[in-house]
Amino acid sequence: MPTVIYVSLQGDDKILRFTMDPVTGDLTPQEAMVVPGGPASIAVDPARRFLYVARRGERELSSYRIDQGSGALSMIGTVSLATDPCYISTDRKGRFVLSAYYEGRGVSIHPIGDDGAAGDPPVERLETARGAHCFQTDPSNRFAFVSHIAGRGPNEIWQFRFDERTGRVTPNTPPKVIPDQPLGPRHYCFHPSKDLTYFSNEQGCSVSAYRLDTQAGTLTALQTVSTLPEGYDGKNSCSKIQITPNGRFLYAPNRGHNSIAGFAVDAATGLLTSLGQTPSEQIPRAFSLDPDGKFLYAAGHESGRLAAYRVDGDTGVLRPLQTYPLGTRPMWVMIIKIGRG
């Protein structure tokens, strides 16, 4: 199955498409598709048939069909939004698009039609608080969480029950998890086989592990580990977070220190041990692992370049490969396998 990489360029109003060599990790440019209105966050449905793009400048959500041979995109619909979303995802069944609004102080849930296009009006529009930054359902598709950064947000994780039939959410009990320190939970990912969730902390410059109660749908803090080297006192904030498909390694970029922090994940407990930091392009806002966890690609928001790394399967250390020119303000890196196989 071909592996395709999509990179949104908010400053150039484009989405770049590359194909990836599964052995070397080399990228081959395929297309620079014009997408007006500042394309930013990207989501793909679980079957990898449809792609969704938040167009922040236009305050719109656009839907695309993915050609299963080439990865080329064809637009199938656009809906207007009340404000610009900083994050989008689909639920685990691919029936709804979930979006979080930083300045819009909340979240929305749009239905996905039989044709794969996100519909209007949303089935849910819920006010939470300023700084809402990530909105996903858990692996069971029964619960959802909304993280809010600190500083300009309340430093909270809101917990919800999710109805996968209707797309509606209701507050869980308790409705919030509040970190002991102003960590600023920004983005999160789930362990592929353990009941654990990991958050990147924007203000805390750290990663936190939480136990996920799969019956109640609630989180309990277990551990927080810094993403920075000891003694560093410069300006920094964390952005995204991702774990390898085998659950052995986890990565979170540092914006300011300009590095990718790596962690080994304990096979028994799921707790983290720092592997140190690998230098990256300037302000690594967007990054992604390939679906097999063999390569990592990180885009420099200020440099406008994409750095490729090989993931050492034994140690988790990142080995630099090549750097690719992108353009102005890369915002998202999405990597999927397409076709059947």
Structural write-up:
The protein is 0% helix and 55% strand. With 341 residues, it is mainly β. β26 and β27 (305-311) form a beta hairpin. The protein is globular, with a radius of gyration of 18 Å. The mean pLDDT is 96.
Concise overview:
The chain has strands at residues 3-9, 14-20, 27-34, 39-44, 50-55, 60-66, 73-80, 87-90, 96-101, 106-111, 124-127, 132-137, 143-148, 156-162, 169-177, 185-190, 196-201, 206-213, 218-226, 237-238, 242-243, 249-255, 259-265, 272-279, 284-289, 295-300, 305-311, 318-325, 330-337. By secondary structure, the protein is mainly β.
How large is the share of residues in beta strands?
Answer: over 45%
Look at the helices and sheets and give the structural class. mainly beta
Average pLDDT number: 96
Question: Spans of 5+ residues with little confidence (pLDDT < 50)?
Answer: none
Order of SSEs? EEEEEEEEEEEEEEEEEEEEEEEEEEEEE
What integer value in Å does the Rg equal?
Answer: 18 Å
The helix content, as a percent range, equals under 10%
Number of strands: 29
Alpha-carbon distance between the termini?
6 Å
Largest sheet features: 5 strands, antiparallel
What's the shape?
globular
Count of DSSP-assigned helices: 0
Strand-helix topology:
Blueprint: E1 3-9, E2 14-20, E3 27-34, E4 39-44, E5 50-55, E6 60-66, E7 73-80, E8 87-90, E9 96-101, E10 106-111, E11 124-127, E12 132-137, E13 143-148, E14 156-162, E15 169-177, E16 185-190, E17 196-201, E18 206-213, E19 218-226, E20 237-238, E21 242-243, E22 249-255, E23 259-265, E24 272-279, E25 284-289, E26 295-300, E27 305-311, E28 318-325, E29 330-337
Antiparallel strand pairs: 1-2, 1-29, 2-3, 4-5, 5-6, 6-7, 8-9, 9-10, 10-11, 12-13, 13-14, 14-15, 16-17, 17-18, 18-19, 20-22, 21-22, 22-23, 23-24, 25-26, 26-27, 27-28
